[in-house]
Design the sequence.
């Protein structure tokens, strides 16, 4: 009986572990410089547009730093699409060397 419970517990842990690893493999975080944001309303409009985009899990946008830190599912989105979303708000997603 104890052996059966142990096997079930081990199987449960394996299933949970595989699920977490798989979910983490599809999540990326990127920081994109954004030009033109002057105030909290500016950063709020960029943040709102990003968060409304399917595949974006979180977006922290700062007008003070001039950047957007975006956590997203790379199976649904890529950086090019994120930049398009930012540009559609009237601000400019800055291309940085190496991107």
Sequence:
């Amino acid at each position: 009986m104890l052996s059966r419970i142990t096997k079930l517990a081990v199987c449960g842990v394996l299933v949970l572990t595989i699920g977490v690893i798989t979910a983490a493999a599809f999540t990326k975080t990127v920081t994109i410089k954004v030009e033109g944001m002057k105030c909290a309303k500016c950063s709020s409009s960029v943040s709102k547009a990003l968060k409304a985009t399917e595949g974006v899990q979180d977006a922290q946008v700062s007008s003070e730093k001039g950047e957007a830190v975006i956590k997203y599912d790379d199976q649904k989105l890529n950086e090019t699409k994120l930049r398009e979303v930012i540009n559609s708000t009237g601000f400019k997603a800055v291309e940085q060397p190496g991107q």
